[in-house]
Design goal:
Layout (H helix, E strand, L loop, with lengths): L1 H19 L2 E9 L5 H14 L3 E7 L2 E9 L3 H11 L9 E2 L11 E5 L21 E2 L1 H8 L4 E5 L3 H6 E3 L10 H12 L6 E5 L4 H11 L6 E4 L2 H12 L5 E6 L6 E3 L18 E3 L8 E3 L2 H7 L5 H10 L2
Parallel strand pairs: 2-5, 6-10, 7-9, 9-10
Antiparallel strand pairs: 1-3, 1-4, 2-3, 8-11, 11-12, 13-14
Helix pairs in contact: 2-3, 6-7
């Protein structure tokens, strides 16, 4: 009997220890004017190091864009600190990762940039006059059924390729700045429709929505919290999830699992797959989709050429 009690006690200890070191993935952004980005960075860096936060954070005069992971027990402390850092950050929406089973970052990087999202735009007009219209999960599902509504995916094509809303439109571009250039040509066909923009967490949609609003499109909507916000809201409220495939993320995970549906194909054999890898040849470093079979065959290289170049460099 004592052996069983010891086993139960040890099991509780293990579970408590696991919870003690459980980390969760998070992301947040806010467009607002930061007068002294370096001072802001130093304050943030001091706190985040103290809370053992890992991640990638961009700060500029136009605001903050952050992705990272943190011990769950410190999450509320981080949230409180951010809300006190500047009045503009009070009640900021912080997205919790869809997948928290694996780590996303190994260290903390905070950089001061010209812009928190590289857009190729010459001014900050996106902050002017645009009255934001956000859709929550139930509204999103409702709008997906309507014929007078069009969904635009404001992510790069390689993100769209492994997961998206059914019948949503991609501009088939690989950078946000190129996407903004193409967007006006695409939406020109949908002047009489309601336009719903979505991206991973919402940050790119803020600029895109303001851009097309200032071009005369008034029926412009965004999904609150982006794909991550939508999925979490669906899960928390037992709402059917209408996003198919996987959610691409810019960290070690490369994707978050949402549904079993596989929308993409292996670059090498064209069999169904949605596993992104970077070519093992560092000079190439191509991001591409590779199935398990081709991964074994090509040793995680994008081609036999890269395989040979890499091994010749070791000789």
């Amino acid at each position: 009997m004592s052996g069983i009690i010891n086993f139960i006690t040890n099991k509780k200890f293990i579970n408590n220890s696991f919870k003690e070191y459980l980390r969760i993935n998070f992301s947040f952004y806010r467009y607002f004017y930061i007068d002294e980005p370096l001072l802001f960075k130093n304050k943030l860096e001091k706190c985040f190091n103290k809370l053992n936060i890992f991640g990638r954070i961009y700060i500029s005069h136009e605001g903050i864009n952050a992705q990272g992971d943190i011990l769950k027990k410190f999450f509320n402390k981080m949230k409180y600190f951010i809300s006190q850092l500047d009045p503009q950050l009070n009640n900021i929406n912080i997205n919790i990762g869809i997948d928290n089973t694996s780590r996303s970052f190994s260290k903390l990087k905070i950089k001061i940039k010209k812009k928190i999202v590289s857009d190729g735009l010459k001014n900050n007009f996106f902050q002017k006059i645009y009255k934001k219209k956000y859709l929550h999960a139930k509204q999103v599902n409702k709008y997906l059924k309507k014929k007078n509504v069009i969904f635009f995916d404001m992510r790069n094509y390689y993100e769209y390729r492994i997961g998206h809303f059914k019948n949503s439109i991609s501009t088939y571009t690989f950078t946000f700045r190129d996407q903004l250039k193409s967007l006006l040509n695409y939406i020109n066909f949908y002047k009489n429709k309601k336009i719903v923009l979505y991206c991973t967490g919402g940050i790119r949609c803020e600029k895109a929505a303001s851009l097309i609003y200032n071009k005369g499109y008034k029926k412009v909507y965004q999904i609150f919290g982006g794909i991550i916000g939508y999925i979490n809201e669906c899960k928390n409220n037992n709402i059917p999830i209408k996003f198919f495939g996987k959610n691409f993320v810019f960290d070690y995970r490369l994707r978050e699992y949402i549904s079993k549906k596989i929308l993409s194909h292996c670059n090498q054999c064209l069999n169904k797959s949605d596993y992104y890898v970077n070519c093992m040849n560092s000079k190439c470093n191509l991001l591409f989709i590779q199935c398990i079979s081709c991964s074994k065959k090509y040793k995680s290289f994008c081609s036999k050429k890269c395989f040979h170049i890499f091994h010749q460099s070791l000789l």
